[in-house]
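S1.2 Input.
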Amino acid sequence: MRIAMIGSGYVGLVSGACFADFGHQVVCVDKDATKIERLHQNIMPIYEPGLDALVANNVKAGRLSFTTSLEEGMDGADAIFIAVGTPSRRGDGHADLSYVYAAAREIAANLKQFAVIVTKSTVPVGTGDEVERLMRDTNPTAEFGVASNPEFLREGAAIGDFKRPDRIVIGVEDQRSQTVLEEVYRPLYLNQAPIMVTSRRTAELTKYAANAFLATKITFINEMADLCEKVGADVQDVARGIGLDKRIGSKFLNAGPGYGGSCFPKDTLALVKTAQDYDSPVRIVEAVATINDNRKRAMGRKVIQAAGGSVRGKTVAVLGLTFKPNTDDMRDSPAISIIQTLQDAGARVVAYDPEGIEQAKLVIDKVTYAAGPYEALDGADAMVLVTEWDAFRALDLAKVKALLKSPIVVDLRNVYRPEEMARHGLQLTGIGR
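S1.3 Output.
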C-alpha cells in the first residue's frame, strides 16, 4: 500500500520506517527543509537505537522517501497519517492542535482520490470529528475517511514496540476506513498482534487513559518509596512483592525521581483539561501530575541533605540528563529540576550523558559538561545518578571513591546495592531504602 506520513519527528519517522520495512511504499513529509535534507543524508533528527540502519535499508530498497511537499507525498496514498506535534498549549495546558488542523486543511485541499486520514498524533477526544469537519469545509467534494490510530511507542525501544505491539487500536466510523487500516497492519497478523477496532472517540481516549494509568503507577511506587524511607522498609522488595501479583504486574514499578519525556507530562495534563471541559474531573490524574512535578525538586533537596545540608560552593557531578536511557530527549526530564535546585542552593554542576548533552545545552544553563562519567566525578563533592544508562551500571567504584572529594553518592535509580557501596567506602543514599 502507499502511505504518506505527515511529520517526520519521533512518531512519524519511526512509524514510517517500520511501515516501509513491512513492504509498504512510504513517503515521509516535513515542512522543515533542513530536517528533510539531513534525512536524505541518513542523519537522524533524534537518537533511537537502530533507526538509522532501518531508514537506510528502506531508502536503499526504494520503499522509503522524504519530501517537503505534502502534495507530492500524498499523491496516490491509500492512508495519510498525521504525526505532527501536539505540545501543551501555553496558558491553559490543553493540547495544541494547530499543527494537526493545519495538516488536515492542506490534505483536503490536495486530495484527489479516496484516502483514509489517520491521526497518529496524541489528540484529545473529539479531534477526529473536528478534522473531518475542517476537511469537508475545505473540500466538500473530496472522498475520505477519518480514523484514529494512537501510537504506543516507548522511546529507546520504539522499533521493537512498533513491530511487536501489545495491541493495535483503530478508531473508525466507516467500514471502508477499517478495511484500509487492517490492510496497512496486515503484516503484523503473523505476530498475532490483536487489532482492536473501536469508535474514533474511544481510540482517542484510550491513548490518554493508558498514559495516565502508567504515570499513576510510577507515582504510586514513588510515594511508597518515600513511606519506605520513613518506616524502614525497602521499596524494591515492596515493588517485587506487589508486582508478582498478575493483577498488578511488575512494569513501571521502579521508584525514581519522577517521570518525564514527551508523553506522560503533557498527556496527563491534557486529560485533566479535557475532563474539566466535560465536567467529569479526574482527581487521581490531577494528583499524579502535581505530585510528580513536586517530586523533581524534592530530589534536588534530597541531594543537598545527603551532602550534609548544604551544597553552597560545592561541586555536584550529575550522571544522566535525559528523562530515560537510550534517547536524547530532555523534555520534562527530572534532571532539569534537580540541577536547577542544586544551582539555586549555590552548587556548581558538572554533568555527563551519553546522548543528551547537546539537547541539555538548550534547556539547562551554567552547567559544565564532561567528556565521560569519570571526568565528571573528578574533584566533585558528590555524585548523583539520575538516568540509568547502561554505561553507569558498572562503574569502577574504587575509581569513583578515588576521584570524589567526598564519598557521597546519591543513586536516584537504585542501580547500586548499599553493601557494595559500603565496601568501597562510599556513602550511598538511594530511593525508598
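S1.4 Remarks. The radius of gyration is 23 Å.
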